[in-house]
Amino acid sequence: MAALVRISFVGLLAAAAGSGCLLLPVPRQTPYSDTMPVQAMPQQEVEELPPADEIPGLSSDEKAVYEVYRQNNRAVVNITSVSVRYNWFLQPVPQEGTGSGSIIDADGHVLTNYHVIKGAERLFVTLFDGSNYQAEVIGADPENDLAVIRINPDGRELASIRFGTSGKLVVGQKAIALGNPFGLERTLTTGVVSGLRRPLSTPEGFIIRELIQTDAAINPGNSGGPLLNLRGEMIGINTMILAPAGGNIGIGFAVPVDTAKRVIPDLLEYGKVQRGWIDIQPVPIYPALAQRASLPVSRGILVSQVKRGSTADQAGVRGGDTENYVVVGGNTIYLGGDIILSIGGRPVSTLMDYLGALENTKPGDTVVLEILRNGSKTTLNITLSERPRSLGW
Fold first, then answer.
1. Of residues 109, 115, 141, 215, which has the active-site annotation?
2. Given 81, 100, 145, 166, the catalytic residue
3. Residues 100, 194, 223, 310: which is the catalytic one?
4. Tally: H helices and E strands in the chain
């Protein structure tokens, strides 16, 4: 069975871990494990590439692809993450993993995947000429597997990637991937956009619903690198592949650049994405719970409790009765509260549906809740609060 694997490269001989499934039928990608040190090359002189028109024998298509590489390869970086694990004798063992990233401005901000930098105690960025810089995490968005890190260019002029748009992509459009697969720096592969709006789940339990599918060859180490159109504009951020054993079989996925453009300002300002929230204890309903608690539906989000004085409370959302409850897995679930059926017109039946319906909202936004109360459907307008750092309240 094929597994979805994240494509950060952890060691030259890394192998894919086992596959799994979080929320059927949405597959879950499997990270690579086992590491070997990855050495940055010493700084070197890199020859300036000539324009395509100065190279004889190239077709018009070859010229277009070459120009994308010429204009963007210096803005693609290699990211090395360093963390510490402990062996059976409790001795610290440094672990290294690598991925890719795109320089997005002259200040040294680099866009990459969250899973490339997750758990890192130190981060290093290697530029096209082998020069190495220590980096700091500026902001992270696990829900979209995106992160922004920064190096201090110390007055050095940096090349950067231009943002395009992903909202008007069509299947069959040319797609060009840049990155550092298996440590091979600034590698280019070409293909097409194979599909749009693909939903896939992350190991953190979040579902990215709008992924771009491409057959441009993507391999371990490409994570965080740009997916580009023929104008040399970023249309996505390469993030994972579908593979039977960790190798490329022509099914890769990228986070749409429009998602990145939406969350980057928050990552730069707050270090996280400011998302709207409903101050309740949400409980996903599943058939066994519905039967045990005699609920009128087998799918939806049960409101166990409402935070007193919150915007949800002010909007009239009702929680359960503290005298009527069940205990499931050590958690107390209060019954009799509202059952949320949809948020802003999007049906919700799982916690991931619930989070997904709020993913593109901001504190202060107003959304319409469709709820089931005492057997009857009704709607409530609710002003969203700010999402807490830990889910729940």
1. 115
2. 145
3. 223
4. 6, 28
Whole-prediction pTM: 0.79
Reported as a single tens digit per residue, the pLDDT across 250-261 is 789 999 999 999
* CA distance linking residue 354 with residue 363, whole number of Å: 16
Of the candidates 39, 18, 265, which has an alpha carbon nearest to the alpha carbon of residue 139?
Answer: 265
Helices (H), 222-310: 257-270, 287-292
Q: Is the peptide bond before 25 cis (omega within 30 degrees of 0)?
A: yes
| Alpha-carbon gap, residue 254 to 173, rounded angstroms | 14
- Domains plus CATH for the chain? 1-273 (2.40.10.120), 276-386 (2.30.42.10)
Catalytic status, residue 129: no
Residue with tokens 């890719």: 100
109 is an active site residue? no
Structure confidence by residue, pLDDT tens digits, 317-373: 999 999 998 998 888 999 999 999 999 999 999 888 898 899 889 999 999 999 999
Tell me, yes or no, if 145 is annotated catalytic: yes
